[in-house]
């Protein structure tokens, strides 16, 4: 099994490397500290499995997963994160991840998940199954209702966040000041009832993928 590890925390990456190197059938072929770097490493190495964190700089794990799934579907992605709420789980699966595990998972369980995913099956942490059921039964009108609260410019900023751009990059793309971008970001998080930019990016990716026409 050829593996790439993508996580912005050096200690986490090295801990995973240390454990996986003790496994006779695992070969670590690359590491990355952000989503963009992960995408480049996977393009070069074409691994069997990518261990992917969600909250990373430059490009988040969801966007990286989406791009990898489109370009390199044979490299299967296992999300390994601290986030267990549905605002992360659902977009990750929709982006193409084949497994979702929390970082407190037992090492042996993580390894068995990677093996199962390599063999072509989905593997989800038991704590998040409820989110999938709720997502399937949740009315679309309710899911996207908060988008109605955003102005057109706030939507523009939200979709730029989903591309993994910084405030400075968003300001350049939309021809507005960085201070104005910060204000829009604050309004977006407040109106969508989200905690941070990563949640906003995940929400936006999910929204764009589903394209609820009645709310566009």
Automatic annotation (TrEMBL):
GO terms for cellular component: cytoplasm. Residues 143-208 form the HTH luxR-type domain. It is found in: Cytoplasm. InterPro entries: CheY-like_superfamily, NreC/VraR/RcsB-like_REC, Sig_transdc_resp-reg_C-effctor, Sig_transdc_resp-reg_receiver, Tscrpt_reg_LuxR_C, WalR-like. Keywords: Cytoplasm, DNA-binding, Phosphoprotein, Transcription, Transcription regulation. Residues 2-118 form the Response regulatory domain. The modification 4-aspartylphosphate is found at residue 53. Gene3D superfamilies: 3.40.50.2300. The keyword Nucleotide-binding does not apply. One of its GO terms (biological process) is regulation of DNA-templated transcription. One of its GO terms (molecular function) is DNA binding. Its main location: cytoplasm. PANTHER family: TWO-COMPONENT RESPONSE REGULATOR. This is Transcriptional regulatory protein LiaR. The lineage of its organism: Bacteria, Bacillati, Bacillota, Bacilli, Bacillales. The gene is liaR_1.
């Amino acid at each position: 099994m050829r593996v790439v590890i993508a996580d912005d925390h050096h200690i986490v990456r090295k801990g995973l490397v240390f454990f996986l190197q003790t496994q006779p059938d695992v070969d670590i072929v690359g590491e990355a500290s952000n989503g963009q770097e992960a995408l480049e490493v996977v393009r070069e190495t074409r691994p069997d499995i990518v261990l992917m964190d969600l909250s990373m700089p430059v490009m988040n794990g969801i966007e990286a997963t989406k791009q990898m799934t489109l370009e390199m579907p044979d490299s299967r992605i296992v999300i390994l994160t601290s986030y267990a709420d549905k605002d992360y789980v659902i977009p990750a699966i929709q982006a193409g991840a084949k497994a979702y595990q929390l970082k407190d998972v037992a090492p042996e369980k993580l390894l068995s998940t990677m093996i199962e995913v390599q063999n072509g099956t989905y593997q989800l942490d038991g704590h998040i199954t409820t989110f999938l059921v709720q997502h399937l039964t949740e009315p679309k009108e309710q899911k996207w209702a908060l988008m109605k609260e955003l102005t057109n410019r706030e939507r523009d900023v939200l979709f730029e966040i989903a591309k993994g751009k910084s405030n400075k990059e968003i300001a350049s793309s939309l021809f507005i000041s960085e201070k104005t971008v910060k204000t829009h970001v604050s309004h977006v998080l407040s109106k969508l009832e989200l905690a941070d930019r990563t949640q906003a990016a995940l929400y936006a990716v999910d929204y764009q993928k589903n394209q609820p026409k009645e709310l566009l």
